[in-house]
TrEMBL record:
PANTHER family per the UniProt record, alphabetical: LECITHIN-CHOLESTEROL ACYLTRANSFERASE-RELATED (PTHR11440)
Signal peptide positions on this chain: 1-25
Keywords from the UniProt entry: Signal
SUPFAM superfamilies reported in the protein's UniProt record: alpha/beta-Hydrolases
Name listed for the protein in its UniProt record: Phosphatidylcholine-sterol acyltransferase
One Pfam match: LCAT
Amino acid sequence: MRDHSQMSFVLSLILVSVSIQLSASDPSKTNWLLNVLLPPIGPEDANFKHSEVPPLVIVPGHVGNRLEAKLDKPAVVHWLCMKKSNYYFTLWLNLNMFLPIGIDCWIDNIRLVYNRTTRRSSNSPGVEIRVPGFGKTYSVEYLDPFKLAGYLHTLVQFLVNTGYVRDDTVRAAPYDWRVAAYEQEEYFDKLKQLIEEMYTAHNKPVYLLGHSMGNLYILYFLKEQSQEWKDKFINGLISLGAPWGGTVKSLAVLASGDNYGLALDLMKIRQQQRTTTTNPWLLPTSQAWPADHVFISTPSYNYTYKDYRKFFTDIGYEDGWFKWQHSKRFLTDLPPPGVELYCMYGTEVLTPMTYVYDENFPSNQPVQIIYGGGDNTVNKRSLSLCEQWKDQQKQKIHVIELRNKHHFDTIYDIDALQMIQDILLGNYSEH
């Protein structure tokens, strides 16, 4: 067994090599990986600190917190895979993913099994998975125990430099990001308890801050609370890059896979991505797109919103249709949050709106991508749906567009972090 320093060095080399490989093909992924490897911290200035800060709960985005597993499996996919463990170990992000056989072991451990009758998901047989660090920030700051893959560390550290205290005035609510919100009853009970606990401890209502898909969990949670409860316990919601109307990228992920910008076999990682209920949940909605917009184009068919069932059939993933059927109503209805909202997102960055495949669809990657406006990951049509709530609730809706900012810039970019700080400290101005 390698020691901590050796493991850290190996993972660093892997991530650096992936960054170099991607630099020519997609500079935006390179920038993200550089921020992961060397997360910027922001200015440290003692004069900047504030002793009276409103409590804050952060909800991360998709794949945005660690998962841990414990095994007692009836069978394994390869004799080198671990069959039984007497302890929980890190499942995401795990160095074994990068190994030729390790990826097969990892997929079999992290996959979900979907039941069409109950409409519920369960873990792979013999696998227990837990979310570490609920109420703490470490699980969302770094995705691995060696603190190499940074995610929300820059944001949290910036807040600490302002006067926040980890696990006290700023806390996090990580979740099982494989599972869509409608299966997360226990998580939402814990989130409500955490908010009430922070309100009591600090005698102030709590701000919620979500990144990407985390905002959909927050919105789902707020929908289930009474207005009286929200008025008492919630100060406001800061949403960063929220896919209110889904994302076109989710269709490409389900069709031909997405390797998260890492050196992973796309067809293998697609197996895992198709077992989740979150990826089908994020399909583009009719609220965000016209009915005749083509999301996926192949030599034999053009897939629009009306063609989702055929899409799932044609890619050999019929469970996806049933998952989407069960979850689509929430995003279609898109209820207002009932709290003051600061809807912040990047704009004017090329963002996929149509993926063009050749006759090898869906086993190969798209041969062409047609772009529109957005933040490189989510289209503006989806990001900007929060504007419609201005006429649907009495609480204020602030729409904050960040020109030329990518999806992850809202958690790394100093201007975006300054904006978040201004909101929390009551210094935000529409002008």
